[in-house]
Amino acid sequence: MTPPRLIVGLGNPGPEYEATRHNAGFWFVDRLAEQLKLSLAPQAKFFGKAARAGELWLLQPTTFMNRSGQAVAALANFYKISPAEILVVHDELDLPPGGIRLKQGGGNGGHNGLKDIQAKLGTPDFWRLRLGIGHPRTLGLAQQVVDFVLHQPRKEEAPDIEHALHRSLLAWPRIAAGDYTGAQQQLHGKAV
């Protein structure tokens, strides 16, 4: 069991994006920082806002989504953090609002943040915490995907996404211990 040393929340910087679906990773890292009593602060050399607790780093890239790999690689390379010690938290179109999946490796599903991280790390073998936001087609919406992810969740979706964030934080002790199997069982089971 390898505990994570870098938790990366994906999103876009700036107040105009703060409440958009694409910032679900930022929302998780904000709540985790609060739970751990850490303050994220700008770190220019890591192209993001970061906080540290012992060996653990929290990071929110301040590059735009499609340049997220620049921040992840800068911090990971500087502190010699391997891909297996990185957990990237991001919005997931292929899961319904409130859905959660924790996995290592795999494709990027067209997610520009994941695509850039894979390119900069040279591997897809980092962990991902996928927070479901739904897909405009499965939700019966005519919106283009780009427009959909850059808008706030609808009022009927927001409680499900909030609940997923809450459940993910409840699984944090297992994730922090490197017990990904236990965390998967907790997160992939029935919602509580």
Automatic annotation (TrEMBL):
Site keyed Stabilizes the basic form of H active site to accept a proton: positions: D91
Root EC class: hydrolase
Subcellular location: Cytoplasm
Subunit: Monomer.
Designated name of the protein: Peptidyl-tRNA hydrolase
Family, as annotated: Belongs to the PTH family.
Keywords of the record: Cytoplasm, Hydrolase, RNA-binding, tRNA-binding
Function (record text): Hydrolyzes ribosome-free peptidyl-tRNAs (with 1 or more amino acids incorporated), which drop off the ribosome during protein synthesis, or as a result of ribosome stalling. Catalyzes the release of premature peptidyl moieties from peptidyl-tRNA molecules trapped in stalled 50S ribosomal subunits, and thus maintains levels of free tRNAs and 50S ribosomes.
Catalytic activity: an N-acyl-L-alpha-aminoacyl-tRNA + H2O = an N-acyl-L-amino acid + a tRNA + H(+)
Major location category of this protein: cytoplasm
Site (Discriminates between blocked and unblocked aminoacyl-tRNA): N12
Keyword RNA-binding: yes
Annotated Pfam families: Pept_tRNA_hydro (PF01195)
Residues where tRNA binds: Y17, F64, N66, N112
NCBIfam families registered for this protein in UniProt: pth (TIGR00447)
EC number: 3.1.1.29
Active-site residues, as the UniProt record annotates them: H22 (proton acceptor)
GO molecular function, one term: peptidyl-tRNA hydrolase activity
